[in-house]
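Fold this: LytR cell envelope-related transcriptional attenuator
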Amino acid sequence: MTSPESASPSRPAKAAGFALLGVAAVALVIGVVSLFSGGSDTPPSAEGSSTPPPATSAAESSPTESSATESSAAPTTESSAPPATTSAAQPPASSAAVALPPVTQPGAPKEPVRVYNNSTIGGLAGKASDEVKANGWTVAGTGNYSQGIIPTTTVYYRPGTAEEASAKELAALLRARVEPRFDGIESSAPGIILIVTNDYQGVSKNK
């Protein structure tokens, strides 16, 4: 059997152990409570307010506005300068290179003319010669034709030569007849022969 003196010291030890266990249990409860209450007790500023956008967000929207400004201003800049491809002040090179056709005198080339008087009017060959020269023909000589009677003022030419077209033009100007050369003047020098008679009318006023 155990004596009463040996059992008494164990009681305070047991009481101290129970006290420590109680303190530990209380501390555990407080810790658990504080753990759960700390997760829900977030500061109002952190829960209710949203973080304002950074200053760069305004800068990020500004390029859109500036690009719109640039796009609206771009047509003004482009319209102020004339297009590079148009040349309103200068004619096309092809039109400048077009050459005008050479100016040609109407009618056939004018062959030299010899004028002979077969009339009773003195100086008629000279008068006719002056009118022929005044209209662009070259008079190669004048004289009298006395080897026959020519019925009317006539311009003669050599068939098959350029004299024919020129003789027809001169005859129309002088309102005279035009015919090929006859035997009496066949061997004369080349050129047109004009034989004037009393019916010579001179240059037509309707030329």
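Residues 1-7, 40-80, 85-105 have pLDDT under 50 and may be disordered. The CA atoms of residues 115 and 129 lie 6 Å apart.
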